[in-house]
Amino acid sequence: MISRGALLVATVCALACVVAAATTTTTTTTRFVLRAADGKEELVAKNTGCGSLITAMRGARDAGLYEYFGADADETMLRDKGFDVVEVSHGTPLRDAPPSGYHTPEEIFGQLSTLAIEYPSLARWIDITAQYNMPETIDGNHIYALKISANVNENVKPAIVLVANHHARELVTPEIALNISLLLVTECASTPFFPPN
């Protein structure tokens, strides 16, 4: 049995970053497939200054190939660093709508914050940026958490911290955070599994 107040799930959602990216950015993401020129594999280890990570591709047909995500303008920089650009493909950030079956960042943000309004004895919406006097994101947004606990207003250490959507364009992690939060709060409200004081 979980002791009273020990269950605390903080679903930290950097949705503010994704919402801003979803509504303000118009750039495309460019994927480069690279090969180290003249077989100089040490280039990958020395790719400092590339603004993004160059990673080895893992498929059987991909031996000696590397992957880099950035902007179109990065192609010159990659060639200057000694990489041969084997393939270039373009994609767009998820600014219009996620694929079918996924929530938009605004929907996830709204549902998580609504849990705190509908279940104030079990859930609290926390503006982490304001609470800890942290700077806003580069787009001027705040980072939030949903605290779920039988002691929602007490300052207890979390037993569980679920971090979701801290990388842009993640689809699954915010869905997991949302579903776990909905399940915990609604199930606890109807069938409390916290022992009494």
Task: Describe the fold and architecture.
The chain has 197 residues and is α+β, with helices and mostly antiparallel strands. The chain has 2 domains: 9-23 and 96-190, no CATH class; 29-91, Alpha-Beta Plaits (2-Layer Sandwich). Helix content is 29%, strand content 23%. The protein has a 4-stranded mixed beta sheet. A 4-stranded antiparallel beta sheet has the order 3-4-2-5. The longest helix is centred in the C-terminal third of the chain and has 19 residues, at 172-190. It is elongated and about 65 Å long. The model is unreliable at 1-26 (pLDDT under 50).
What is the strand content? 15-25%
Counting DSSP H or I runs of 4 or more residues, the number of helices is 6
The end-to-end span amounts to 13 Å
Helix content: 25-40%
Low-confidence stretches: 1-26
β-strand number: 8
Q: How many domains?
A: 2
Provide the succession of SSEs.
Answer: EHEHEEHEHEHEEH
Largest sheet: 4 strands, mixed
How would the global form be characterised? Answer: elongated
Strand order of the largest sheet: 6-7-1-8
- Derived from helix and strand composition plus strand pairing, the structural class reads alpha+beta
What is the averaged pLDDT score? 74
Radius of gyration: 22 Å
